Structures are given as structure tokens and as C-alpha cells.
Amino acid sequence: MKKILLALVAMFAITLAANAADYRLDESAIDAVIENAVAVSPSSIMGEMNATMHTNASLSAGTVNSAAAIILNFFLGGIGIHRHYMGTRPWMWAIYTVTIFGILGVVPFVDFIVMIVALVEDGSVGRYCGDTRFIMWG
């Protein structure tokens, strides 16, 4: 029981520190940051991370790889990792887990079917990106 609780706490901490909207790579910006680097304190870094986490930027259809979202749903849908990848609330995985893996896997299964249908119809799952409802297809 202690291991399960520790794993849930670790997953919650990782979820709060990560958001799919924050992962963009601009090599020129990275080079500029390295050239202009200055010493910072740990408290200022945490302040910037908290400000970034609370920014609720919605994802566009081009930001999320549809195949990756569907694969994440297939393997980790019961704990809602696909919803986190698609830019929903950072703690959505906890709701999926507490509801016994999305009400015994029904919600992730329907998410899977809905994402495949959206991929066939629209060419992407972009219309579900940033959706903050528990049932994204409702």
C-alpha cells in the first residue's frame, strides 16, 4: 500500500511540473539563453515554473501528434495520460485513476474510439486538445 501511495504522489508531482503546451524547441532561443546565462536562485526558478504551470494555453491541432495521442490512450488510457498529452488539466490522470481507471476502462475506450473517428474525419484529434471536461467527447 505504501508503494502505491508513493507512486501516486510521484505521478501527481510529475504531472504538476509538466504540461504538453510547454514543450517547444527553438534552437536559436536555446543558444541565446546559453550565451546570456546568469546565476539564479532556486526560489526564482520555482516561481517561473509555477507561473508557467498556471498558464492555460490551449493547444492547436498541429501541436499534438494524433498518432501519439492514440497510442498513449491505448497503452496508458486507464490513467488518462493521453488527456495530459493533449493539454487538459494537469491532474486529469488523478481523476481517471480515482474513478477506477476511468470507470473500469469505459471512458478511455470511448476516448480511443472517438479519437480514431476524429482522425479519420478531420485528419487529427485537434478538436479535443485542451478540453478540460472529464468526458472529452460529451
Notes on the structure:
The protein has 138 residues and is mainly α. The protein has one domain (1-138). The chain contains 8 helices and no strands. It starts with a helix and ends in a 16-residue tail after the last helix. Mean pLDDT is 79; it is low at 52-58.
Arithmetic mean pLDDT: 79
Rg to the nearest angstrom? Answer: 17 Å
Beta-strand percent range:
under 5%
Number of domains: 1
Q: What summary fits the major beta sheet?
A: none
The SS-based structural class is mainly alpha
Q: What letter string, H or E per element, gives the SSE order?
A: HHHHHHHH
What spatial form do the alpha-carbon principal axes imply?
flat
Quaternary structure state of the chains depicted: single chain
Helix proportion range: 55-70%
Distance between the termini: 35 Å
User: What is the overall number of helices?
Assistant: 8
- Low-confidence region ranges: 52-58
Number of strands: 0
Structure characteristics:
8 helices; mainly alpha; single chain; 138 residues; flat
